Amino acid sequence: MWGAIRQWFDSREVREVGTTPDYRFSLANERTFLAWIRTGLAFVAGGLGIAQFLPPLPIAHLREVIAIALLLLGGGVAIRAVDRWARNERAMRLGRDLPPSRFPALLAVLIGLGSLLLVAAVLVQAIE
């Protein structure tokens, strides 16, 4: 585990293994990383926006729950992004297949479930 985390901060850990891949692949890997970081930042911005600007909702603490969920999701996406970048870079340098990831499916399911919960909250509010 600590070796994987060390790769995030020390590019020599990644660059000393294997052979240098075509730079286009490394740049594509970096662009994918940056796209995930933007996604994480969007979740964080949404969480902060909800915490600061959304008025209290009729369901007690729903606003805070939504804000905290988005903030945690944003942090999780950012951490997963750097881990994915390092794993992909290492795999490319070693000439291996890119490691599979369940994270996009997990993220989609979490967002889908979250939206269903919010739809239920809106319906509860409309009924009252």
Briefly say what this structure is.
By secondary structure, the protein is mainly α. The protein is built from 5 helices and no strands.
Structure overview:
- The chain is mainly alpha-helical and 128 residues long.
- It contains 5 helices and no strands.
- Helix 1 packs across helix 4 and helix 3 runs antiparallel to helix 4.
- The model has no long low-confidence stretch (mean pLDDT 89).
Topology:
Blueprint: H1 2-9, H2 11-15, H3 23-53, H4 62-94, H5 103-127
Number of H- or I-type helical stretches: 5
Q: Could you say how many structural domains there are in total?
A: 1
**Using DSSP, what is the number of strands?**
0
Rg is 19 Å
Mean pLDDT equals 89
Helical proportion, percent range? over 70%
Beta-strand content bin: under 5%
Could you give the distance between the termini?
A: 50 Å
| Most strands sheet | none
Protein name: Membrane protein
Membrane topology: Multi-pass membrane protein
Subcellular location: Cell membrane
Keywords: Cell membrane, Membrane, Transmembrane, Transmembrane helix
